[in-house]
Amino acid sequence: MEVQIEVGKGIQCDGIEIMFGNSISSVVKAVGEVDKYEDNYYFYESSLLVHVDSNNCIDEIEIRNDEEHSHVVMLNGTNIFSEMKDVVIELIVRLNQSPAEDELGTYEAKRIGLAYSFSMTDEEIKEMISEAKEEGTYEEMKEEIEADIKRAKYLQTISIRKTK
Predict the structure, then answer these.
(1) Is 142 in a helix, a strand, or coil?
(2) Which end of the chain is less congested by CB atoms within 10 angstroms, N or C?
(3) Whole-angstrom distance between the N-terminal and C-terminal Cα of the chain?
């Protein structure tokens, strides 16, 4: 999946325009395979979530990173799903022209309509390692812990919202 984020407007995904205010029916027709739950439409094996309002018009888009980091999600010339956490935060803060608000691990850059999160915070990783060592399970869980540490270095999800 290749995505170009157009801040405040929507996205281009594999050549398909998914813009705020457009009807979801055009996306369903263009992409094809879809799972629907309430006002959410899931495409590309749930890597792309499109939320609609009461008129079935697109009002929010969420993109989820996969284990292999195979999705290309471009923001201002940077593939934000393959860059490390610090690079992504710095880019979004610069575009937002102010720090993003951190609410329970989800960052919000309200001026540019982006919300984003990582799988785990540094504190959660430290706590997980400490608990595993205390319980004597660190060695048997080491592979999973290392996978969690690696995953936490990259963006997990990004939500794109319409800006005023």
Answers:
(1) helix
(2) C
(3) 28
